[in-house]
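[Automated response] Your request has been received and processed.

Submitted sequence:
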Amino acid sequence: MMEQLFTKKEAAAYLKVSERTVDREISRLRLKVYKVGRCVRIPESSLMQMLGDGGMARVSREKTIRELYED
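Generated structure:
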């Protein structure tokens, strides 16, 4: 059976966050996505993995910020 794919709007509703938050997680490479033409589709397994990894917890945000600004 094929995995369910979400649009950014659907993923945001599923996670109960804003679309901007989904965009940030995609840009930080925490959410794997597929591009179909100009459309972005997010597999359900990517959402589940992000939630299983601690989601968007403060600790992971701080770690990401440190990684971005390390020399």
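Summary generated for your ticket: The chain has one domain: 5-69. The CA atoms of residues 7 and 39 lie 8 Å apart.
If you did not submit this request, please reply to this message.
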